[in-house]
Amino acid sequence: MQGTLSVWLAKRGLVHRSLGFDYQGIETLQIKPEDWHSIAVILYVYGYNYLRSQCAYDVAPGGLLASVYHLTRIEYGVNQAEEVCIKVFTHMSNPRIPSVFWVWKSTDFQERESYDMLGITYDSHPRLKRILMPESWIGWPLRKDYIAPNFYEIEDAY
């Protein structure tokens, strides 16, 4: 079953894949990385003017990484705002996704955190650098294949 937004995108020939609905009835769509920026602009113009959150996760060791965007359509006088969840998958070997910073400025620190923890490069992001880990840190701590370095000072603290 396709949701309202999926039908709207299909009528306009915009490539996407419906992943169904979550437990709250929010539609989840998969968008290809190469189509993401143009579809993000279209969604903003369509009324999805609020980026509720952006996060990322490692789908499987050595496989795919996912960048997830929760968008809300806020309109005056509407009690129940329309929401959609967008997932953009990228291969771990070259994790690149277009940044949507220039569409929703609130994604600034969220995309930086996804870069810092998982190594997803967000193309055209104005300040893409580590935000939680030191610049000298090697690796991406939230990847499933990450091997944590030995921190002997933590063991000596007890």
UniProtKB/TrEMBL annotation:
<keyword id="KW-0934">Plastid</keyword>
<protein>
    <recommendedName>
        <fullName>NADH dehydrogenase [ubiquinone] iron-sulfur protein 3</fullName>
    </recommendedName>
</protein>
<dbReference type="InterPro" id="IPR001268">
    <property type="entry name" value="NADH_UbQ_OxRdtase_30kDa_su"/>
</dbReference>
<dbReference type="GO" id="GO:0016651">
    <property type="term" value="F:oxidoreductase activity, acting on NAD(P)H"/>
</dbReference>
<keyword id="KW-1278">Translocase</keyword>
<feature type="domain" description="NADH:ubiquinone oxidoreductase 30kDa subunit">
    <location>
        <begin position="30"/>
        <end position="148"/>
    </location>
</feature>
<keyword id="KW-0521">NADP</keyword>
<dbReference type="GO" id="GO:0005743">
    <property type="term" value="C:mitochondrial inner membrane"/>
</dbReference>
<keyword id="KW-0618">Plastoquinone</keyword>
<keyword id="KW-0874">Quinone</keyword>
<dbReference type="InterPro" id="IPR010218">
    <property type="entry name" value="NADH_DH_suC"/>
</dbReference>
<dbReference type="GO" id="GO:0048038">
    <property type="term" value="F:quinone binding"/>
</dbReference>
<comment type="function">
    <text>Core subunit of the mitochondrial membrane respiratory chain NADH dehydrogenase (Complex I) that is believed to belong to the minimal assembly required for catalysis. Complex I functions in the transfer of electrons from NADH to the respiratory chain. The immediate electron acceptor for the enzyme is believed to be ubiquinone.</text>
</comment>
<keyword id="KW-0793">Thylakoid</keyword>
<dbReference type="InterPro" id="IPR037232">
    <property type="entry name" value="NADH_quin_OxRdtase_su_C/D-like"/>
</dbReference>
<keyword id="KW-0472">Membrane</keyword>
<dbReference type="InterPro" id="IPR020396">
    <property type="entry name" value="NADH_UbQ_OxRdtase_CS"/>
</dbReference>
<keyword id="KW-0813">Transport</keyword>
<dbReference type="Pfam" id="PF00329">
    <property type="entry name" value="Complex1_30kDa"/>
</dbReference>
<keyword id="KW-0520">NAD</keyword>
<keyword id="KW-0150">Chloroplast</keyword>
<dbReference type="GO" id="GO:0008137">
    <property type="term" value="F:NADH dehydrogenase (ubiquinone) activity"/>
</dbReference>
<comment type="similarity">
    <text>Belongs to the complex I 30 kDa subunit family.</text>
</comment>
